[in-house]
Amino acid sequence: MKELLSFMEGDGIDDEQYVYPTVNDQGKLVYGLFCMNAEGEEFPESIRLVSEDGETSTLDMVWTIVCAGPQYNNLDVSHEYYEKDGIPVTTLTRMSIDFHDVKMTNEFINEAKKLRDEPIFILDLRDNTGGLNEIADFFLYNLTGDKCEAKMQLATRYSAINQNIEKAISETKKLSDFSEVDFYQDNQELVNGWTADRERGGQARTGETVVIDNHAKWNDYENTIVVLVNQKTKAAAEYFLMKLSTVSNVVIIGTNTAGYMITDSDIDAEDIYLQYTGIPVNYGPTLVLHDKMEDFDTTGWIPDIVTRGDALDAATALLRN
User: What angle do CA 17, 314, 150 make, to 5 degrees?
Assistant: First the structure.
């Protein structure tokens, strides 16, 4: 997995691939130099800066690994709601409706009704290990009043083993039973309509490939949402970012995400066993095609503003300015 590294602000640079907006120590928006780098690759040892008046200088580089921290212990921290510098902050580190998670998931989804009247709020998805995509849909519907649709295709090849996985998913109650979710209880017909197209796979023939098109729809939102991400933001949390990309006044701050959102409907509740060897396998049978797909598994989602330290501190400092 590639890591994001940084150096300093500069007036100009020959190679703009390194230039990203960031927040300096005074809480101001500036440009910084960042480099996506895999282990073993060499960093540029120096870089030439060009000022507005044409003056040039060469700087020796000192690279530092960026961390958007803090890194939560997902067993202890799953959801919190609090204020920092008067700004509401809601955190979520897993998107689950397991029996021990339903209470916190309901709280998170229901908070959106309150947050939509806030001029600014922070959605902290750092260390969010993913789970159910529907939780993002429920939250955003409560926030915007409509379902947020991102441009993507879902392609599923219905081989015999894929059909077994789909069957396992549908039979795993914790992945499909929303009966304890407040939003579903209040909007059962609406949610069933959302999922109707994705249930076509149950009627597909072996060997058939089913492609479902999701067309993007812009959602006007008059207030501001600041979203925090880091390299442990993955899977359904990246689906959350895809949906948020269709909402106005959303700013994503932190470091690049894990790059997991290339498959869908993966099953980790039970293993699927290969017919002849008995080896257990676990994978997503549906390929997710979207505009950010190229190199997504190595770079993930690149935020609008890259931070060099704690993303929450950077966000609140920027908002104070």
Answer: 60
